[in-house]
Design a protein that fits this description.
alpha+beta, 4-stranded mixed beta sheet
Length: 110
């Protein structure tokens, strides 16, 4: 990935509390896993204003670069406070344990 793409991703990840790199957007997910990720965040009580989404389908450099950036091969990818949380499977596991709700709550209440 080129330096410009890395910098753009870095600014997105570090500039927002909760970022979901996904196919489509929160209103119109364009793959099942992205839709599931949005549903999980909604179930955590995250207001749409608290979520920043990046549609990787609109930018091939970001689509490829985010996989390298987080060393995570699949999309969607959730970042909270600059840290990679994971994809929809990890999000579902964390939701089941209550961990994701706590993380979202801590992030949005500060």
């Amino acid at each position: 990935m080129d330096q410009n793409t890395r910098q753009r991703i870095d600014e997105i990840v570090k500039g927002h509390s909760i970022v979901l790199f996904m196919k489509g957007n929160a209103s119109f997910p364009q793959c099942g896993f992205s839709g599931r990720a949005v549903q999980i965040l909604n179930a955590c009580g995250l207001p749409s204003s608290g979520l920043t989404t990046v549609n990787v389908l609109e930018d091939e450099a970001i689509r490829q670069g985010i996989k390298e950036y987080g060393n995570w091969p699949t999309i969607p990818q959730l970042y909270i406070k600059g840290e990679l949380i994971g994809g929809s499977d990890i999000m579902a596991e964390m939701y089941e344990s209550g961990e994701l709700q706590q993380l979202v709550s801590e992030t949005t209440s500060h």
